[in-house]
Structure formats: C-alpha cells, structure tokens
Specification:
mainly beta, 11-stranded parallel beta sheet, 11 strands
C-alpha cells in the first residue's frame, strides 16, 4: 500500500451492505478520510491498521452507516483525528481503539457529527496523543465510554465527548 489519496477510502460499500468483516491496512499512504465501514452501507465488523500512514481522519464506522464492532489499531504513522464510530450518522455498538505507537492529535471513542456509539473502549499502550475523548465529537451520544491508559505521552484526557453528551464515563 502506497500513494496519496485525496478522497475517501472505504472498507465497505457505497450503499451495498457487507455482511462480514472489512480490513483496511495503511502503510506508506497519505489520505484524507479512511472508513472501516461503508458510505451509506452497514458492515458487521471493521478492522483498520495504521502502521505507517499519514491520515487526516480515520473512522472505524462508515460515513452515514451502522457497524456492530469497530477495531482501530494505531501501530505507527500519524492521524489528525481517529473516531471509533461513524462520521455524519449511524449506530456503532462497540468501538475499540488500540494505540501501541504513532501519533494522533485527537482520539474520539464515538462518532464525529452525529449518531450513537453504545460502548467505546480506548486503550493506549504507547504513542503520542494530544487529546483523548471517550465520547463523540460534535453531536450524538456515546452511552458507555471507557478509557484505559497503560503508557504513552498524552496531553489531555476527557472521559466524555468534545461537544457531545455522555451519561457516564470510565477513565
């Protein structure tokens, strides 16, 4: 995997459902948006591995789509924003973000602009992270955000969302 992508990369379909698992591997790639899910199509489980790419936004879910389980692995590279959930709308049952190396400006356990993430799980073992939010960014809600810090360099940790509501937090 190498190259520069100015649009979006989707692990799922545009409006066609993926009834299984999507895998997206990022190595030596520069990209604006990478989605584990589809544009407007659901996916059962998504897996994104950033081992050496430079990405503006990584979404475990889709753009306007539902996903049962999302898994994002920051194993190197750089990301401006990492969202365990979807972008504009959609429901994600479980989002999981694991960081073992690399850098990120913002990590959100939930969605970006709207929608719901039932449970978000963020585990940081290593890496450099500026801000960690257990919940969503702009809107919607994350019901049960969980943050576990084992190591790494982190500037700020917020159990809740940025501008979004959460009923409870676990840090």
């Amino acid at each position: 995997n190498s190259g520069t992508y100015t649009g979006s990369i989707y692990g799922g379909g545009d409006i066609g459902v993926v009834e299984g698992t999507s895998y997206v591997h990022i190595n030596n790639v520069e990209a604006n948006n990478i989605f584990g899910g589809g544009n407007q199509a659901s996916v059962t489980t998504t897996n994104i591995y950033n081992k050496g790419g430079i990405v503006s936004n990584i979404y475990g879910g889709g753009n306007k789509a539902n996903v049962n389980t999302t898994n994002i692995y920051l194993q190197g590279g750089k990301a401006s924003n990492i969202f365990g959930g979807s972008n504009q709308s959609g429901t994600v049952t479980n989002s999981n973000i694991y960081a073992s190396s690399g850098t990120a400006t913002n990590i959100y356990g939930g969605n970006n602009q709207g929608g719901t993430t039932t449970a978000s799980n963020i585990e940081i073992n290593n890496g450099t992270i500026q801000n960690i939010y257990g919940g969503n960014n702009e809107g919607g809600t994350t019901t049960n955000p969980n943050i576990n810090i084992i190591g790494g360099i982190i500037s700020n940790i917020y159990g809740g969302g940025n501008r979004a509501t959460v009923p409870t937090t676990n840090v």
